[in-house]
Design goal:
Elements: E1 3-6, E2 9-12, H1 16-75, H2 78-84, H3 89-102, H4 107-119, H5 124-136
Antiparallel strand pairs: 1-2
Helix pairs in contact: 1-4, 3-5, 4-5
């Protein structure tokens, strides 16, 4: 029996069928590997495109929030905030929850406004209740 070396395996000539099948399997595996690589590249490109599209969609919203915060800082003084948020835990919690529940908009807006309230030394209890109420609670004032 003569043996022929195909890759690292040795196959006898008597098993001619195997010699024909193995190169086909190897070519199928090679093409599947190329397909997987192409699919992975397409997935990465698709994910990057979706991320940039999402960023482009949210950019005007964030720009609007930044402009509103500029107005907020101009027209709402520190004294006005300290009059609304007195430092009493229970009152600040209720006030923050009420303001957050009637506020409308994207949850991203509440996080930015919450960051500004932190800079103005509003208590974290009030800010937390404001954020949770904004994101989780919705009081529709149009039904009245």
């Amino acid at each position: 029996m003569k043996e022929r070396c195909l890759g690292q395996r040795s196959i006898s000539k008597e098993k001619g069928e195997i010699q024909v099948i193995l190169p086909q399997v190897a070519s199928i595996k090679g093409s599947m590997t190329n397909r997987k690589q192409n699919d992975e590249k397409k997935d990465i490109v698709s994910a990057l495109f979706k991320a940039f599209k999402s960023f482009g969609t949210s950019l005007p919203i964030m720009l609007g929030v930044i402009l509103v915060l500029g107005l907020f800082r101009t027209f709402v003084s520190k004294q006005m905030l300290s009059a609304v948020f007195t430092g009493e835990s229970l009152r600040d919690t209720i006030t923050g929850a009420l303001i957050g529940s009637i506020s409308a908009g994207n949850p991203v807006n509440s996080y930015i406004i919450g960051g500004e309230l932190v800079k103005e030394n509003v208590s974290l209890i009030a800010i937390t209740s404001f954020l949770v109420a904004w994101v989780a609670v919705c009081i529709d004032l149009n039904d009245t």
